[in-house]
Structures are given as structure tokens and as C-alpha cells.
């Protein structure tokens, strides 16, 4: 189903000060494998209520409303549902929403594939110095690590009151090979490789290892672009 977003409804939504916008995610692991829309993407109007970490399982039509069911909690009703998760997760959804996709469109969507990788965030105490002359660096000589960023420096938010943070992206081959490994084991492997690239790096006070199952599109749909706006006429 290809359609355009109705301008009159879009304007009405923007003017609704109590418009409830929910950041719905679809992924089996709430903490490690999800694709979550940002608050800035969903908050159309001032005062919008934004909710994250709701794993969607079904979308059904109920009395001219879209009923969204989640893994936990009661279902909720919406006038419009916009799906922004990766294609494989859309195709896993149950309910009436599956009937909106024609056989031809489903075949096109099933042809889409994604690369996978991990991201590791390292957070340091205030006053910690990371002695490198750059804010970000691509790594071409390591089988595990592809990119390193001194994130606060890259974002130009260095402060005497906030400790620095470092972000590491793995290579796609490493991500694919270790996709189903535990994040603890993967984090240790990234640490070992990082030590070889930046020896003597200070020990962080906190870390966050994130599995990025659907990182970037590696093969696009074979047909035309398909945009779904689920709405009630």
C-alpha cells in the first residue's frame, strides 16, 4: 500500500498539545537488540507524551482505531501508526497489519538485508584525559574495530564537570560472526582489541555494549520504495 501522509491530519496532529506519541520497538531483547525511534522524531507537538521500550507484537483494526498490542501491558488504541523499525521486524508483526502488505510487496521487503555490528560505550570520571589528537578515527587494520570516537569531543561538549566518553563500532564481519554471542564475551573481545589500538587507555567507570543487529541496509528492496502510513479514512 503506497500512500502519502494526509496534510490536514498532520497539521491537526501538530496542534494537538496532548498528542500521545509512543516510541514502539520490536525486538526480542529489550536491552540489547532493538531499534528505537528518538524522542525528537516522534514528538510532533509541544507537550507530547513520549514512551519508549514497548515491544510490539500485533497491530489490529478495532472500531476504526488501530489497536497495538505489546509483550507487556494492555493494548492501546491509535488513530495512526507509523512503523520505523527495520523491515525484518515489520514482517514479524502479527494481526491485521500483515494484510496491508501485498504478496509482491512482501517479496520486495523480504529481499532487504542488513549488516550487523556492535557498539561499545565507555564512560570516564571527570578529569580523565584521553591523550589522542583526534575526535574520531576510522580503523582499517583491525579485524574487530572499525571506528573510534571521543564522543564528547566530537560533539564539542567538553566540560570540566562531565567526564569524557568513548564510542567504539566494530566491523561488520566481527558483528556477524559474534551476533549470537553474549554481550559480556563480545565486550571483552572489543576491550582486548582496543588495548592494542590505544594502549594505556584509562579504565572506564561504566560501559555499555549494544548489539546492533540491523545496523545499515546492505541490500535494498528490489522494487520501488514502499512507504506505509497506517491510517483510518
Automatic annotation (TrEMBL):
Pfam families (alphabetical): Amino_oxidase
Organism classification: Eukaryota, Metazoa, Chordata, Craniata, Vertebrata
Location of the region described as Disordered in the Swiss-Prot/TrEMBL record: 1-36
Protein name, UniProt field: Renalase
Domain Amine oxidase stretches: 46-219
Keyword terms, alphabetized: FAD, Flavoprotein
Superkingdom, taxonomy of origin: Eukaryota
Flavoprotein keyword on record: yes
InterPro entries in the cross-refs: Amino_oxidase, FAD/NAD-bd_sf, RNLS
Organism: Leptonychotes weddellii (Weddell seal)
GO molecular function: oxidoreductase activity, acting on NAD(P)H
GO cellular component term of the entry, any: extracellular region
Bias (Basic and acidic residues): 1-11
Amino acid at each position: 500500500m503506497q500512500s502519502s501522509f494526509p496534510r490536514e491530519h498532520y497539521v491537526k496532529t501538530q496542534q494537538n498539545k496532548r498528542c500521545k506519541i509512543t516510541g514502539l520497538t520490536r525486538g526480542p531483547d529489550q536491552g540489547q537488540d532493538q531499534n528505537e525511534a528518538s524522542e525528537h522524531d516522534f514528538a510532533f507537538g509541544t507537550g507530547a507524551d513520549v514512551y519508549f521500550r514497548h515491544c510490539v507484537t500485533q497491530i489490529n483494526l478495532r472500531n476504526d482505531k488501530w489497536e497495538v498490542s505489546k509483550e507487556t501491558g494492555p493494548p492501546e488504541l491509535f488513530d495512526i501508526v507509523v512503523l520505523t523499525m527495520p523491515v525484518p521486524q515489520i514482517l514479524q508483526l502479527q494481526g491485521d497489519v500483515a494484510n496491508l502488505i501485498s504478496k509482491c510487496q512482501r517479496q520486495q521487503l523480504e529481499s532487504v538485508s542488513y549488516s550487523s555490528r556492535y557498539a561499545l560505550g565507555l564512560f570516564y570520571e571527570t578529569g580523565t584525559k584521553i591523550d589522542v589528537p583526534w575526535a574520531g578515527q576510522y580503523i582499517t587494520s583491525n579485524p574487530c574495530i572499525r571506528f573510534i570516537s571521543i564522543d564528547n569531543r566530537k560533539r564539542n561538549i567538553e566540560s570540566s564537570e562531565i567526564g569524557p566518553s568513548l564510542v567504539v563500532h566494530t566491523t561488520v564481519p566481527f558483528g556477524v560472526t559474534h551476533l549470537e554471542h553474549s554481550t559480556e564475551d563480545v565486550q571483552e573481545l572489543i576491550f582486548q582489541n582496543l588495548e592494542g589500538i590505544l594502549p594505556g587507555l584509562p579504565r572506564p567507570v561504566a560501559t555499555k555494549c549494544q548489539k546492533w543487529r540491523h545496523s545499515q541496509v546492505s541490500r535494498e528492496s528490489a522494487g520501488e520504495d514502499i512507504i506505509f502510513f497506517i491510517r483510518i479514512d
